[in-house]
Specification:
The complex is a heterodimer of chains A (303) and B (328).
Chain A lengths: L11 H8 L13 E12 L2 E12 L3 E5 L6 H8 L7 E6 L2 E2 L5 H7 L1 E3 L12 H6 L10 H4 L6 H17 L15 H14 L4 E5 L7 H16 L3 E5 L3 H7 L2 E6 L2 E6 L1 H6 L1 H8 L24
Parallel strand pairs in A: 3-8, 3-9, 6-7, 7-8
Antiparallel strand pairs in A: 1-2, 1-4, 4-5, 9-10
Helix pairs in contact in A: 6-7
Chain B lengths: L2 H12 L2 H19 L7 H18 L4 H23 L4 H19 L5 H4 L5 E2 L4 H5 L16 H25 L2 H11 L1 H6 L4 H27 L1 E2 L6 H14 L6 H25 L11 H19 L8 H7 L2
Antiparallel strand pairs in B: 1-2
Helix pairs in contact in B: 1-13, 2-3, 2-8, 2-11, 2-12, 2-13, 3-4, 3-5, 3-11, 4-11, 8-11, 9-11, 12-13, 13-14
Classes of the chains: A alpha/beta (303), B mainly alpha (328).
Bound molecules: adenosine-5'-triphosphate and magnesium ion (MG).
The site of magnesium ion has 4 residues of chain A, from helix 2.
Chain lengths: 303, 328
């Protein structure tokens, strides 16, 4: 469950207020960081995919992680959530050092991620996908499993919670369909709903909008804002600058494994270095001007 | 030709003692492979563990059958831990390699001269293996069956074997419809997704391996008790592949898949065999001798399986819709 800090209200206004005086430099300290990482690096062969000296993620805010293809965003997600092991580095979650913690433990502690390549559990129903996200199910213990009355009540409660989420994500008419029969965009939605089913404190979404149609994107943006209003921290990777501009309270820019800029969306998109990183050369205008949104042409939908 | 006799011999084998041994292995494999997606290619090792537990405890140490049953379960659990701990954290194919290698290793170990005193070497262990069990036989002494050709002793094994098999099927049904079953099915579909939802997949895979191995061990126990003999060379890797055949035939991840698969597999195998023998003995087929039947029935079986995979790849009870999802 999201831990709310007493001295601060949640939501957009609070996040903006909290981040107002944060210096707009890479690795800027935040007033109330939920994640702090130091010297995290990961090398693949000769390539330094991630080399982050210092980064902090503000609690209760929506932080966008942007950067060109191959910048190391997904790798950083993998490292922070324990799915990959860094060569160097330490990081904390809620002031607790979590480097080397197993990924399922981190998820249970409240750090939940989704995947760039959607991982819907194909031959399971949509509702089963959702129920898998629920925490502390006694029926998941092998001995209790055979004694249904020990888990029936819990199952019913989880089902109700799942239904509310599915309705929010427009999947409530699909509950008994195989997840594998959903469209690519619907699978993205399911994965996000499933991650929320865990009750995360910070949810890390790797390109949640890829392949989702514009109308639905709008409502998705609404959902992400809602998540923040409820006190959950959101860190998401996105290539569409308009979208980043629309919902993020703070933007972190990566290029070639390093964090090259940080700041509120407006400022970051006017940042020369950021524009250069994206376009590979000097470019006069801000990233979202004259409709030239920086969604890369070859931006793949999910596989 | 005596078709009644052919049919009776066929049915007797289709639901008989040997079929039951395969059934236990298949029920176990269904938990491991069908539901959890574990590529265990060494299921025969768990059967051997059960059989040798009986052989060693009863014959070598003379400690009685009931202790042997307990030891069989314990040994199969240890075997699962031994195979699982180093491999279950790795990619799926590692388990496959390790299990098939381990099953051969175990077979060579029990048939080796070095341990002949304990395991009986290549001859195995032969003698009064299931006396306590057969003493409990309630069937009348002068018992004979119509049509079916079981002895009084075999029928007792078959009755208890099928009861146990149904009990295990019920157990599997209970497990897979529970939240536990949901987690293992999730692991089969995508392990990382399940990890990202906070489940310790290693523990679940281990549990599935242990449960499936334990059920298979009962096949081995039954084997020793029914045949009063445990021989190393019956536990060859092809046993495991027949079990896979059975499972795919009936439909993996179906509660009744193993039962259906076993009966069909043995009905066809025995049916081909009996029919062919009869045709040869009655002079209808002259270019074959009765000794060819054994291998030819497996060829026909292979042909039948190929046809099945082409026309009904999901197995007899599988769901075609699920199969179509893999192509997306
Ligand atoms: N498992 C791996 N083995 C080798 N190289 C890898 C591996 N994973 C990532 N890389 C490399 O690390 C770099 C960063 O990859 P990463 O997936 O983190 O980029 P990204 O910022 O998420 O890009 P995109 O926006 O395209 O998703 C790339 O150059 C990639 O080729
Ligand atoms: Mg990526």
């Amino acid at each position: 469950m999201p831990a709310k800090t007493d001295h601060m209200a949640t939501g957009h206004a609070a996040a903006v207020e909290a981040l107002r005086d944060v210096p707009q430099v890479p690795g800027a300290p935040k007033p109330d960081p939920v994640v702090i990482a130091d010297h995290v690096s990961r090398q693949f062969g000769g390539l330094k995919a991630v080399d982050v000296a210092h980064v902090e993620i503000q609690r209760g805010a929506i932080t966008a992680l942007i950067g060109p293809n191959g910048a190391g965003k997904t790798t950083l997600f993998n490292l922070l959530t324990g799915f990959d092991k860094p060569d160097t580095g330490t990081w904390t979650f809620n002031d607790k050092s979590v480097a080397g913690t197993a990924p399922h433990r981190l998820a249970r502690m409240g750090m939940v991620r989704t995947f760039q390549l959607t991982k819907a559990l194909s031959r399971m129903s949509v509702i089963d996908n959702m129920l898998l996200g629920a925490h502390g199910q006694s029926g998941e213990r092998v001995l209790n499993a055979l004694v249904p009355f020990t888990w029936r009540g819990q199952e019913r409660a989880n089902r109700e919670r799942a239904m509310v989420l599915l309705e929010r994500f427009n999947l409530h008419e699909k509950i008994d369909d195989f997840a594998g029969s959903l469209s690519g965009g619907q699978r993205k939605l399911l994965e996000m709903a499933r991650a929320l089913m865990v009750g995360p404190e910070i949810v890390m979404l790797d390109e949640p909008m890829a392949g989702v149609n514009p109308a639905l994107t709008q409502s998705l943006l609404g959902h992400i804002k809602n998540i923040r209003e409820e006190g959950t921290t959101v860190l998401f990777v996105e290539h569409d600058m308009d979208m980043v501009h629309d919902i993020s309270d703070w933007v972190i820019v990566m290029a070639q494994g390093q964090i090259i800029a940080e700041g509120p969306p407006d400022a970051v998109m006017k940042n020369e270095q950021v524009i250069e990183a994206y376009l590979g050369s000097r470019h006069g205008s801000s990233l979202t001007d004259d409709g030239a949104s920086l969604t890369p042409d070859a931006q793949g939908v999910n596989s | 030709m005596d078709f009644v006799q052919i049919f009776s011999l066929t049915i007797t084998q289709a639901v008989g003692v040997t079929a039951l041994i395969y059934l236990f292995a298949a029920i176990g494999l269904n938990v491991q492979f069908g539901y959890t997606g574990l590529l265990n290619f060494g299921q025969v090792a768990f059967v051997a563990a059960g059989a040798y537990a009986v052989g060693v405890i009863v014959l070598t140490f003379d400690l009685g059958l009931w202790l042997a049953v307990v030891v069989g379960v314990v040994v199969s659990t240890l075997l699962a831990l031994l195979l699982g701990i180093p491999t279950l954290r790795l990619r799926a194919d590692y388990l496959a390699i390790v299990t098939i290698a381990a099953s051969e290793l175990l077979r060579l170990l029990v048939r080796s001269i070095a341990f002949k005193d304990v395991f009986g070497g290549a001859q195995g262990l032969n003698g009064k293996l299931g006396q306590e069990f057969h003493d409990l036989n309630p069937l009348p002494a002068d018992f004979t069956l119509p049509v079916l050709t079981w002895s009084r002793q075999d029928l007792w094994v078959v009755i208890v074997g099928w009861s146990l098999a149904l009990l295990f099927t019920l157990l599997v049904w209970g497990l897979v419809r529970s939240p536990w079953g949901r987690v293992v099915k999730g692991i089969r579909e995508d392990e990382d997704a399940v990890v990202s939802l906070g489940k310790n997949v290693f523990v679940y895979k281990m549990q599935a391996l242990i449960i499936g191995g334990g059920i298979a061990a009962f096949g081995g126990i039954l084997w020793a008790v029914a045949k009063q003999s445990v021989q190393p060379d019956t536990f060859q890797p092809d046993f495991t592949f027949f079990v896979y055949t059975i499972l795919l035939l009936g439909g993996a991840a179906r509660v009744f898949g193993p039962i259906a698969g076993t009966i069909i597999f043995w009905f066809l195998l025995a049916g081909f065999g009996e029919l062919l023998s009869s045709l040869i003995n009655n002079g209808y087929i002259e270019f074959l001798t009765p000794t060819d039947v054994g291998s030819i029935r497996f060829m026909l079986m292979g042909l039948g399986l190929m046809l099945l995979m082409i026309f009904r790849p999901q197995g007899i009870f599988g769901d075609r819709r699920e199969l179509a999802l893999d192509a997306r």
